[in-house]
Amino acid sequence: MSILSAITGHPMASLALGLGLCLAACGLILVRRVLGRCIGRATWPAVEGMILESTVVANREGRQSFRPVVRYAYAVDGICYEGSRIASGEPVDFTTYTRARRVLDAYRPGGTVTVYYDPARPGVSALQLGPARGLTSALVIAPVAAVSAVLVVVLLIGR
Question: How many other CB atoms are there within 10 angstroms of residue 18's CB atom?
Fold first, then answer.
């Protein structure tokens, strides 16, 4: 008995394999999009900006955490913009106020900073370039979905 005939002869195996392959394909598409953004960010131009405000915000919902928050101004082609993104990746929360405050040591109000901006949308900016949002999720979803689909099919065929 071939694997193909075993899969097509068992409706749950076909369903599991189809669902797993769909999830794996979605994960791979997400990886491609996220990696494309990472590569694009690596080429963002930089301009000089000025820190307007830097503070730590406490989040008391659930487990207490602290997030460093910065507001900065910069200009591209004579047009002024304001930004608040420290890193181009996911915002980071800290478990202690001291660690969050340490991030802000480099961003004192009135100080100058390098601001990286998206040339296609100059209002999108960051003070540090890093991994894009969703990369970790995408890198986990695709292989887990593919392996899960194969395992379910093998288990169903073995019955």
Answer: 12
CA triple 123-113-98, angle to 5 deg: 105
Position 120 confidence tier, pLDDT thresholds 50, 70, 90: very high
- Name 44's Cβ contacts closer than 8 Å, sequence gap at least 6: 116, 117, 118, 119, 126, 129
| pTM for the structure as a whole | 0.60
Rounded Cα distance between 6 and 129, Å, is 49
CA distances to 11, 18, 142 from 147, rounded to whole Å, are 19, 12, 9
Q: Are 67 and 78 within 8 A, CB to CB?
A: no
> What pLDDT digit, counting tens, does each position of 91-116 carry?
788 999 999 999 999 999 999 999 99
User: How far is C-alpha 6 from the chain's CA centre?
Assistant: 40
Cβ atoms of 80 and 123 within 8 Å: the answer is no
